[in-house]
Design goal:
The complex is a heterodimer of chains A (192) and B (445).
Chain A: H1 14-24, H2 36-46, H3 53-63, H4 67-74, E1 88-93, H5 96-100, H6 103-114, E2 127-132, E3 144-146, E4 149-151, H7 157-168
Parallel strand pairs in A: 1-2
Antiparallel strand pairs in A: 1-3, 3-4
Chain B: H1 18-23, H2 28-34, H3 38-48, H4 60-65, E1 76-81, H5 90-97, H6 99-113, E2 117-122, H7 127-142, E3 158-163, H8 173-180, E4 204-208, H9 209-221, H10 223-228, E5 230-231, E6 234-235, E7 237-244, E8 250-255, H11 260-265, E9 279-283, E10 292-293, H12 294-298, H13 310-314, H14 317-320, E11 328-333, H15 338-352, H16 358-375, H17 381-394, H18 402-426, H19 428-431
Parallel strand pairs in B: 1-2, 1-4, 2-3, 7-11
Antiparallel strand pairs in B: 5-6, 7-8, 9-10, 9-11
Helix pairs in contact in B: 2-6, 2-9, 3-6, 5-6, 6-9, 15-16, 15-18, 16-17, 16-18, 17-18
The chains are: A alpha+beta (192), B alpha/beta (445).
Chain lengths: 192, 445
């Protein structure tokens, strides 16, 4: 149910609507605005990985709040993309402990391979490079996050190639309840 | 090796499922607590000496005892799973591998606090962990450990997981509550404290993931038993996230009191500095705590061995000491440029400042800019003093501690590595060559 033209009004799919309904039961009835962040995540996953003003208006309508209340939240939290993105957003951690283990070199390498500069989408529309701050994976640095998956210990070209190859064949699914769990942590994270 | 109160079974196959977790002693603390009064449970936590494991180290039992209990007003327990302090990655492991440990802790703690609805606020980036938690929560409901009349006790509890959206500031408890209410993560003025007016303006306790998990062994074995482990006012075990230039980075559950030197060099823990290099500096408790040069992290200024405890790491205050903090232990080898690292952290804080308070919003921006020009060879001697001056003007003048968190690393870096900063000014060509690092002596006092 993607918004493909400027005039087509976006709508949530039935599955997304069911999930939103479930989420609303988590909060007191008169406090449904608490569901705003989870619903924005659902919206971003439904509508191509970003939240346009029309999508934000849809979220406002869903929660019966003013559009500004959604705009101010969507612009505050870094996970929400406010412009169109490629098929996969490579979120590269740039904070201290990752820098100590080569995140600068990883970024340069990814810019070269994908043809995208930091903050931009590759010419083939597959990869968008995004810089993010500490992802709580410092012991397995350097790392890239793509949607929900953590790709850790990307300190060799082989590791990076492995990630990119996996991504070329991957199609992101919408965000649905926990039955969809099957997402592995990376092998590095299981070393305790 | 040291007792593993939390992570003993972390590598057991299937431990993330209810049945396997139960087989290994899981949910005993719930059964035990429900036979005690809530106040008795609070008393055990007080006796344990448990201190908040998120970074502030505030005594958990004392925080619980502050909770206001007006008649007919719902109370909340909110778990702070927003783990975002650079260098810290222990809560993620706890939740993803031992989800039932956190859930068990939440049930026992919620009972003690009289909360009938509790939340786990987890950073949005950890969506896969949120899924794991939701699955485990569904199992707990199915087995009768959540929901109405738990184990026939008459106690009801609903537990929900709630995602953030990418904001370090939401690890600050009042910003977290604002975010949980569906707003921008702007911290609130305190007082009123969350214990009086928290989530939805109702009495609320916010605790870190590891603190909640620690309630399980505390209730199982008693607070006095927990307090037998550790040294002084640093009781029990703590998960240390070790990272940076180590041979064996990772998460280590240690009994508080292990010597820092042993933690860094022993094969039982981090296995020493990688690539055969020398240690240069350590940030011991997450990026917000003062950086210390090698000499001062291994021994106090008085020459005593430094221990992994709150007291020992704070010995010397901010002149020659640091803090245990979140336990995000970042080690830096001799090839590290301290100026570059400080600039990196200052960029982080500037990026993460919510923008409410001028000293923080402007101050973090200034520090980032000044550090940038120092790092890239355009700085002056005056810039070094300017950094110290800006840091001082932020401290104590902000609504929340992010200001201090941004100021302390800068002040400490200049205090102990001033010669390195000066070298960037006097020898810019050398200092900005790729891979350049200052090898001279640190300032110890």
């Amino acid at each position: 149910m993607e918004s493909t033209t400027a005039t087509a009004k976006p709508q949530f799919s039935p599955a997304a609507q069911a999930e939103i309904k479930r989420l609303l039961t988590h909060y007191p009835e008169d406090r449904s605005k608490s569901a705003l962040l989870p619903i924005l995540h659902i919206a971003q996953a439904e509508f191509g990985g970003w939240v346009s003003p029309q999508v934000q208006d849809l979220v406002a309508e869903t929660l019966n709040i003013k559009p500004i209340e959604v705009y101010e939240v969507a612009t505050f939290y870094t996970m929400f993309n406010l412009k169109p993105v490629g098929k996969h957003v490579l979120e590269i951690c740039r904070t201290g402990p990752c820098m100590l283990r080569g995140s600068d070199e990883l970024t340069e390498h990814l810019e070269r391979i994908t043809g995208a500069k930091m903050g931009q989408t590759s010419p083939d529309g597959v990869f968008t490079l995004k810089e993010v701050e500490c992802l709580a994976a410092c012991g397995f640095a350097p790392i890239v996050q793509v949607r929900e998956k953590y790709y850790e210990q990307l300190d060799t070209p082989e590791a990076v190639d492995g990630m990119l190859n996996e991504l070329r064949n991957l199609v992101h699914r919408p965000i649905l309840p926990w039955e969809e769990t099957g997402l592995a942590t990376s092998p590095a994270a299981s070393r305790f | 090796m040291g007792r593993k109160l939390l992570t003993e079974h972390i590598n057991v196959a299937g431990i993330e499922t209810f049945d396997v977790y139960r087989q290994h002693g899981g949910y005993r603390s719930v059964e035990k607590a429900l036979k005690m009064t809530p106040d008795e449970v609070v008393e055990e936590v007080k006796k344990s000496g448990l201190r908040g494991r998120g970074g502030a180290g505030f005594p958990t039992g004392m925080k619980w005892s502050f909770l206001a209990k007006p008649e007919g007003v719902p109370r909340y327990l909110v778990c702070n799973a927003d783990e975002s302090e650079p260098g810290t990655f222990k809560d993620r492991q706890l939740m993803s591998k031992l989800p039932h440990l956190l859930i068990e802790g939440m049930i026992t703690s919620s009972y003690a606090l009289g909360a009938n609805t509790s939340y786990i606020y987890i950073r949005g980036e950890l969506l896969y962990v949120l899924r794991i938690l939701e699955k485990a929560i569904a199992e707990a409901y199915a087995k009768g450990y959540l929901g109405k009349n738990i184990l026939g006790s008459g106690y009801d509890l609903d537990l929900h997981v709630h995602p953030g959206g990418g904001a370090y500031i939401c690890g600050e408890e009042t910003a977290l509550l604002e975010s949980l209410e569906g707003k921008r993560g702007n911290p609130r003025n305190k007082p009123p404290f969350p214990a009086v007016q928290g989530l939805y303006a109702r009495p609320t306790v916010v605790n870190n993931v590891e603190s909640i998990c620690a309630v399980v062994p505390i209730v199982n074995d008693g607070g006095d038993e927990y307090a037998k482990i550790g040294v002084g006012k640093s009781t029990g075990t703590k998960l240390i996230s070790a990272c940076g230039h180590l041979n064996k980075p990772g998460i280590y559950e240690i009994e508080l009191g292990v010597p820092v030197e042993e933690f860094i060099y022993s094969d039982e823990y981090c296995g020493g500095i990688w690539k055969g290099r020398d240690l240069k500096a350590v940030v011991a408790g997450g990026s917000s705590v003062p950086i210390l040069p090698k000499e001062l992290i291994l021994k106090t200024a008085a020459g005593e061995d430094r221990l992994m405890t709150y007291e020992s790491l704070s010995d010397g205050g901010f002149v020659t000491g640091t803090m245990l903090g979140s336990g995000g232990f970042i080690a830096m080898d001799e090839t590290t440029c301290i100026v570059r690292n400080t600039w990196n952290f200052s960029r982080f804080y500037h990026h993460e400042s919510c923008g409410q308070c001028s000293p923080c919003r402007e101050g973090t921006g200034w520090m980032e800019k000044v550090l940038h020009r120092l790092e890239y060879g355009h700085g002056s001697m005056h810039d070094i003093d300017l950094l110290v001056s800006v840091a001082k003007q932020i401290e104590g003048n902000t609504i929340c501690p992010l200001g201090e968190a941004a100021a302390w690393p800068v002040a400490a870096a200049v205090r102990h590595f001033r010669h390195e900063f000066e070298w960037h000014v006097t020898n810019p060509k050398e200092a900005t060559a790729p891979g350049a690092a200052y090898r001279g002596a640190a300032v110890l006092a």
